[in-house]
Amino acid sequence: MPTANGQLIYCHSNDSNEFWSALVEKAYAKLCGCYEALDGGNTADALVDFTGGVSEPMDLLEGKFNQEEETRNQLFERVLKVHNRGGLISCSIRATTQADMEARLDCGLVKGHAYAVTDVRKVRLGTGLMAFFKSEKLSMIRMRNPWGQREWNGAWSDSSEEWQRVSKSEREKLGVTVQDDGEFW
């Protein structure tokens, strides 16, 4: 297993007694030829290899999801349906050049880096009875950086003021935590 200073370099668990993920990665690297073949690989390809499932890539710019609210709503409903059916979803910000790969953006995200979608929900805004009667909901997607750190730091980030629009009990149900654990809404 590749190590530096006695620590695994690539895939590893936070629990030192858990070793299976590094072994699976090693086997996959052997299947692909070497660890270098995994560097910058396509997440969709890996999911197909590991599950035997089918992948469906979507380009948000190409699909003009940033321009029309109706198309964004349709995309969210589709992502919600896939998530509720147990589908595996990942996302990334396209790196246009090799030099751009792993570039850290001001918003806290990393270009060319794969993020796992860990939850998809319609979050009820408001507190108390107002939340039930007004029933305004916000479409939200929770993502996780597999590095276990480096998170989104904009609107709706862990400690942003936007979360004050959501009741404490709703935040607890969503599992909102203020720590650099790599997971963010």
Automatic annotation (TrEMBL):
It comes from the Eukaryota. It holds the Pfam family Peptidase_C2. GO terms for biological process: proteolysis. GO terms for molecular function: calcium-dependent cysteine-type endopeptidase activity. Residues 1-185 form the Calpain catalytic domain. The active site is at H113, N145. GO terms for cellular component: cytoplasm. SMART domains: CysPc. Belongs to the peptidase C2 family. This is Calpain-5-like protein. It comes from Labeo rohita. The lineage of its organism: Eukaryota, Metazoa, Chordata, Craniata, Vertebrata.
